[in-house]
Amino acid sequence: MQIDLIPRPVYLEYQEGFFQNAGLPGIGGDRVFQGEMALAAEQFRRDLGLPPGEAPGKAAVACREVPPLREGEQGKEAYRLTITAGGITLEASAGAGIYHGLQTLRQLILSGYDHNTLTIPALTISDYPRFPWRGFMLDVSRHFYTPSFIKKLLDVLSLHHINVFHWHLTDDQGWRFPVPAYPELIETGSKRRDLRNPQTPELKQFYTSGEIRELVAYAGARHITVVPEVDLPGHTKAALAAYPELGCTGGPYQVDDQHGIFSDVLCAGNDRIFDLVEAVFDTLAEFFPAPYVHIGGDEVPVSRWEACPKCRRRLEELGFERPRQLQGWLTARFARMLKERLKIPLGWDEVLEDTEKMGLPPELVVMSWRGREGGVKASSAGHPVVMSPSNDGCYLDYRNYDLPEEPGAGSRITRVYDTYMTDPVTPEMTRDQAALVLGGQGNLWSELIYAGRWAEYMIFPRMCALAESLWSPRELKDFASFSRRLPAHQKRLDMLNILSYRGPLQ
Ligand code: ACM
Ligand code: ZN
Asked: Which atom belonging to ligand 1 lies closest to the Cα atom of 296?
């Protein structure tokens, strides 16, 4: 009997016999893991469509606190799962490890439950992640996804041990969270009109502070860190529509319904932009317990800065030769503001350009998206790196396959195979550089992903492949093995009501 787990565990050995149970087994164990145990019991019940309040069977699953199974941070996520005819034992030193072990058990239950009887082969699993950052990014500006849909996604992503949710909260097409001192960010910035069809109603779409808190808690219970992104200083037309005095031309600006790169960005010569950014960072620090705040930094045209008297004056005062240097100056300034709030800045790989003499802090994390070169360069300069190369398996808005009926962004293709084969550590990296690679991430940009169902189709099974790429040891990576396990795993996704792509993988 094959158990077809994704991601593939580090160590798995089958034993003689089976664990069998009439109905769902109850979960018991050490009190420190009460939260994880209660949540898993609820997940198992819901997955199988069992009614709430049903008395669970005898506590055949025992969760035990043990000394760390690995050294360092990895130890917190490590777990050991032992399944015998007599019962199931899960051991870990921390809640994260217990949660991951329970998600592995969840996969076994999804596949092993039939006619009210659970059957799982006896086995031993010893497991821990290759990388600490196993991320997924959702763009909620181009298309707004509801809190309940995001919860559904996070729950299923955590089944694959994904542990970072990068929430792309602002862009030209909408600002999605309230900042008390700047009410127009929501009043104006979260509203979008179809500019080509002005008779259609305007949509006001944002997350309330209550919804954000609830989502952060929901993710936290699943050992997922939520990393908010506010894209600065470009991709800011929604903010400029709300506060036009912060742009170089003074506007007026509109929340955009077209896609692309727009020349209107925050005016680097206007100190009032820092008041707005201070307020934004205060709000993020209040809502998000994660140590990281993503400040964007991608795709910033300098044409407005070149023409703007205030920006030219700033350039002269700072003794810079090129307008691009203003971006590095802004990045350094934003990073300082975050440091004051005990937060670590993250930016897209453009944040490193033209930044000699800029004093970027070494803790600035670089997210490499235009390829892997940005990550290689960042790690050689001592920055931690998250790899999310658009040309190497990590862009989930790209089509799954080169077939005319496949939805997605233009002619660009990310096959399941590409996602599986991507490796955040590149051959040219030294050991020291490789040690700075936190992990990798799949990104779903939503310009053309108009609905949650559609998002599911783009995310799965590519995130299953990426999860294995980021969790399992490199030596165990084997696309043929993954392909053999995938059909059984996609039955699990079916049971969880997830729409997944089923065309060619390679
Ligand atoms: C990006 O795809 N513009 C980061
Ligand atoms: Zn300006």
From this structure: 4
Provide the pairing of β-strand 191-192 with 203-204. antiparallel
- Cα-to-centroid distance, 388 and ligand 1 (Å): 10
DSSP calls for 151-162: HHHHHHHHTTT-
Inter-helix orientation angle 272-287/324-340, to 10°: 40
Residue 46 parent element (H or E): helix 34-47
Ligand 1 atom having least distance to the Cα of 299: 3
**In this structure, are 139 and 269 located in the same domain?**
yes
pLDDT in tens, 480-505: 999 999 999 999 999 999 999 999 99
User: What is the tens place of the pLDDT at every residue in 383-399?
Assistant: 999 999 999 999 999 99
| Domain residue limits at 104 | 11-127
Residue 227 contacts residue 238 (beta carbons within 8 Å): no
236 plus 270 within the same structural domain: yes
12 three-class SS = strand
The pTM for the full model equals: 0.98
Q: What are the beta bridge partners of residue 344? A: 292
pLDDT, tens digit, 9 for 90 and up, residues 73-112:
899 999 999 999 999 999 999 999 999 999 999 999 999 9
Structure tokens at 71: 């050294």
Q: What is the CATH number of the domain that holds 31?
A: 3.30.379.10
